[in-house]
Amino acid sequence: MKHEDFLRLVSHHAQPVILLEGTRQLPDSDKPELTAFARQLAVAFPQAHFRTGNASGSDEAFAAGVVDVDPQRLEYVLPHSAMRQHSRNKLFSSLSLDDVSDSVEELLAVETLKASPKYHSLIGGRKRHSALRVKANYLLRDTLKITGFEEANFQPAHIGVFYINSQDSGKGGTGHTIRVCENRQVSVITQDVWMQWLIQS
Length: 201
Description:
201 residues, alpha/beta, Rossmann fold, 8 helices, 6 strands, 47% helix, globular
């Protein structure tokens, strides 16, 4: 994606929702770039909201840039409401799987398996086994980040900005989230693209 195409896509929406996330295994040397790019986006698009999963690593580094500009535009989507409470403050909006109905969760399960069918046993067995439930909730949360939940005023995501493990971009929750984006025709950019924009700015 070209920079001008990204700008056009974001500007097309009255209140764009930009997903900011990636691997937990973020090299210390790259943290400043994630924070700087998120800060740049928050300044450039004052109407935008920024959504992340509150994980350590990439999520945390991106979130810091938004908080520097306007913490009230940061949205957390969580597997459960107690996740990493110490890293959030009262200005942040949050949505967790605790907030959605069983029927909505089932829809999330369908979307999750469309993107990652290899997790069929995990998603299918989550209601029978508590250990599976814990793991499944993280995947369902990743799907929820993209679908949103309009009853709680969390709109669907419009674009995803990622920092990925370049050796295995399809791995884990980040890989799953990217596949959900692709299934739902949500544009995705990764650091090999957006870091070049940061350098050029």
